[in-house]
């Protein structure tokens, strides 16, 4: 016969010690993982915005019609008059501009949006400093209907040849200067604790972003 002597389970004290160790590890790791996920959202922002701009350029060149990329800082109706309500923001959306619409057609036509929270991740939003300085005037490349529809919003026009008309664009990449304080880049995003700065090439639509920077590194308020 095989003896069962020597076999024993865990004592209550041992189980309590293991549970306490697991609880301690969870307490330490959860904030670390949350911080990592927030930073990852900003890290992905350049790729997401670059892909979105590439899509807008492709649409403009394929349809031979002007398009416009509009930045929405707050959640609002992105397509008034549509049969299905469309909420956009914080994020951006691209619209096709029809300069000669028919009797049952519209000048401004919604195409696609990039939702920061849903498609980039985390609590990504436009940085406060960018909101204060972003030029929001009308564009001479857009018809009155579009300028009226998007009055007070930052707009990047995409011409049928793929060229981007970026408000107050600075030639080259500001990021190449190595500066981190109050950069005058085309876009600036934050998750509340960290920041990224984004420059867009007006000729090619290529996007360059900074590394993910802390508030102390940027001088942001």
Helical percentage:
25-40%
Rg over CA atoms, rounded to whole Å, is 24 Å
Query: In order across it, which strands form the biggest sheet?
Result: 5-4-1-7-8
Q: Spell the H/E element sequence.
A: HEEEEEHEHHEEEEEEH
Our measurement of the CA-to-CA distance between the termini, rounded to an integer number of angstroms, reads 78 Å
Biggest sheet descriptor:
5 strands, antiparallel
* Percentage beta strand: 15-25%
Can you give the mean pLDDT? 86
Number of helices: 5
**Shape assignment:** elongated
Secondary-structure-derived class = alpha+beta
Question: How many discrete structural domains?
Answer: 1
The number of strands is 12
Low-confidence stretches: none
Top keywords for this entry?
221 residues, alpha+beta, five-stranded antiparallel β-sheet, 5 helices
Protein topology:
Blueprint: H1 12-63, E1 67-72, E2 76-77, E3 87-88, E4 91-97, E5 108-115, H2 116-120, E6 125-126, H3 128-133, H4 144-149, E7 155-158, E8 164-165, E9 187-190, E10 194-200, E11 207-209, E12 213-214, H5 215-218
Question: How does this model look, in words?
Answer:
The structure is a single chain. The protein has 221 residues and is an alpha+beta fold. It has one domain. Helix content is 33%, strand content 22%. The chain is built from five helices and twelve strands. The strands form three sheets. It has a five-stranded antiparallel beta sheet with strand order 5-4-1-7-8. Strands 6, 9, 10, 11 and 12 form a five-stranded antiparallel beta sheet that branches. Strands 2-3 form a two-stranded antiparallel ribbon. The longest helix is centred in the N-terminal third of the chain and has 52 residues, at 12-63. It starts with 11 loop residues before the first helix and ends with a helix. The mean pLDDT is 86.
């Amino acid at each position: 016969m095989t003896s069962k002597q020597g076999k024993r389970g865990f004592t209550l004290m041992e189980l309590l010690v293991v549970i306490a160790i697991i609880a301690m590890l969870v307490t330490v790791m959860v904030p670390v993982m949350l911080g990592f996920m927030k930073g990852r959202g900003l890290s992905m922002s350049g790729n997401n915005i670059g892909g979105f701009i590439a899509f807008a350029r492709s649409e403009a060149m394929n349809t031979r019609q002007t398009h416009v990329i509009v930045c929405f800082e707050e959640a609002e109706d992105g397509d008034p008059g549509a049969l299905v309500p469309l909420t956009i923001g914080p994020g951006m959306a691209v619209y096709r501009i029809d300069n000669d619409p028919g009797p049952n057609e519209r000048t401004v036509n919604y195409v696609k949006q990039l939702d920061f929270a849903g498609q980039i991740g985390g609590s990504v939003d436009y940085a406060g400093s960018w909101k204060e300085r972003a030029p929001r005037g009308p564009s001479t490349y857009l018809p009155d209907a579009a300028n009226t529809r998007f009055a007070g919003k930052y707009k990047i026009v995409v011409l049928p040849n793929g060229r981007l008309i970026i408000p107050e664009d600075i030639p080259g990449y500001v990021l190449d200067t190595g500066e981190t304080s109050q950069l005058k880049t085309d876009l600036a995003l934050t998750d509340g604790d960290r920041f990224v700065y984004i420059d867009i090439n007006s000729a090619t639509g290529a996007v360059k972003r900074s590394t993910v920077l802390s508030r102390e590194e940027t001088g942001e308020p």
